[in-house]
Amino acid sequence: MLNRLGVLRGHRLTTSPWRVGLGLALLVLGFCIWARVHIGRNWGTPMTQKNEPELVTSGPYRLVRHPIYSGILVAAIGTAVALSWTWLTIVALAAIYFIYSATVEERYLTEQFPDAYPPYKRTTKMLVPFTL
């Protein structure tokens, strides 16, 4: 039976309130939904090649080249912080996958937009604004 917090009776919530708060804040900061809406018809599964693609460089794409990956990773870090530090291992594996996917996609975008993508790539970071 669950109590009003959704915790099984007889079991204690072991996550400290500051970790829950920090995790929730990181989750909310993820902007993958904004990026998904902004990219519109150009969205697809990782490493998908679209017919007649459009290079989107506005909205969240002004800040980073792969904001959906960034948002997912920020949300995953927030969840890991809220639940258990051991979940960070899974987040690290997801980060490796997203960095690989972004690298493959960037090769494709450079081929599709040889005049526009390289300058865009030089002025924005891959996943973390001003950093990475």
UniProtKB/TrEMBL annotation:
Keyword match Transmembrane helix: yes
Principal subcellular localization: membrane
Protein localization: Endomembrane system
Gene3D superfamilies: 1.20.120.1630
Name of a matching Pfam family: PEMT
Membrane topology annotation: Multi-pass membrane protein
Annotated TM spans: 20-39, 68-100
Keyword Translocase among record annotations: no
Annotated keywords: Membrane, Transmembrane, Transmembrane helix
Top-level division of the source organism's lineage: Bacteria
Name this protein carries in UniProt: Isoprenylcysteine carboxylmethyltransferase family protein
